[in-house]
Task: inverse folding
């Protein structure tokens, strides 16, 4: 997979589909490498006639690591955020959005459809609000506005996100990561243990970097709520969320729909904080329909509404 210079750093990326087709930029979530997008997911988008680009966010996988920033002070940052104090971080979600713009620049793309999952959805929201000319449409999957008044995950789950095993003990790292992914997985579509374990082992061998996960989490905390800027989003927006998401409860999806003008919402029963194989045809079907409507013209792309699948 190639690397490219973007926004002053190196980003590892991969592209599939017709290079002359409308581009889709896929942005993954917290600590997740580009390999976390299921093959069936990005292949369905490419087969539907789009040029699909995936990449490792900064501090993830094979992209630039911010070793010089040191270990992230997550405990003190969480305490400061809880009492309304400013949190300092080596970089913000806005910087990560600028990385995405830099990647589009480096690839010679004036604009793209943006599809972001979890933290990637947060980055996508900033892209659409602050770099609107670069965003054809926005698809925000299992994400949030960051409003601290929204329902939060169980404290034990939040602690599990912070407590990552150090690099070195591969077997322990695999087991603890598998356990975490199973805790946030879709209760209506339980994952195959063997598949999850194989995917985790692949990602650990490719580019396991727990300090980067911590710094990305610090960036989320330090960036605060995106509520004040979401009203600036003009791109046709589709929000996809699981009804049973334990990490970002579904109330966050309804909050986003209220804040983004004309946003459409699809809620999937039985879905948690993952992309279960059984739902990929439905999820990608909604995305392809959303993008095609936008490509056909602005009137076809806008409209209110929500549904439960």
Result:
């Amino acid at each position: 997979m190639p690397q490219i210079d973007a926004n002053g750093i190196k980003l590892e990326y991969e592209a599939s589909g017709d290079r002359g087709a409308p581009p889709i930029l896929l942005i993954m979530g917290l600590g997740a490498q580009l390999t976390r997008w299921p093959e069936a997911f990005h292949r369905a988008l490419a087969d539907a006639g789009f040029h699909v680009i995936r990449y490792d966010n900064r501090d993830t996988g094979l992209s630039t690591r911010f070793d010089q920033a040191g270990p992230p002070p997550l405990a003190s940052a969480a305490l400061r955020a809880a009492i309304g104090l400013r949190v300092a971080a080596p970089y913000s979600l806005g910087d990560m959005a600028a990385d995405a713009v830099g990647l589009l620049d480096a690839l010679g793309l004036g604009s793209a459809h943006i599809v972001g999952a979890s933290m990637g959805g947060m980055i996508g929201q900033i892209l659409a609000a602050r770099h609107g000319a670069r965003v054809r449409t926005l698809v925000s999957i299992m994400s949030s506005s960051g409003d601290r008044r929204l329902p939060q995950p169980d404290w034990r789950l939040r602690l599990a996100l912070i407590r990552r095993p150090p690099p070195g003990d591969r077997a322990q790292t695999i087991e603890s990561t598998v356990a975490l992914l199973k805790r946030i997985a879709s209760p209506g579509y339980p994952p195959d243990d063997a598949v999850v374990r194989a995917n985790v082992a692949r990602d650990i061998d490719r580019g396991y970097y727990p300090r980067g996960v911590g710094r990305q989490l610090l960036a989320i905390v330090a960036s605060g709520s995106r509520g004040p800027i979401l009203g600036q989003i003009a791109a046709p927006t589709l929000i996809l969320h699981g009804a049973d998401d334990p990490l970002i409860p579904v109330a966050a999806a309804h909050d986003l729909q209220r804040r983004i003008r004309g946003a459409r919402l699809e809620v999937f029963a039985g879905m948690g904080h993952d992309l279960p194989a059984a739902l990929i045809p439905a999820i990608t079907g909604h995305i392809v329909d959303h993008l095609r409507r936008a490509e056909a013209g602005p009137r076809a792309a806008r409209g209110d509404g929500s549904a439960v699948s």
About this structure: The chain is about 40% helix and 15% strand. The beta strands are 3-6, 9-16, 23-27, 51-55, 112-117, 135-141, 237-242, 264-268, 305-308. Residues 3-308 form a domain with the Rossmann fold fold (CATH 3.40.50.1820). The chain has one domain: 3-308.
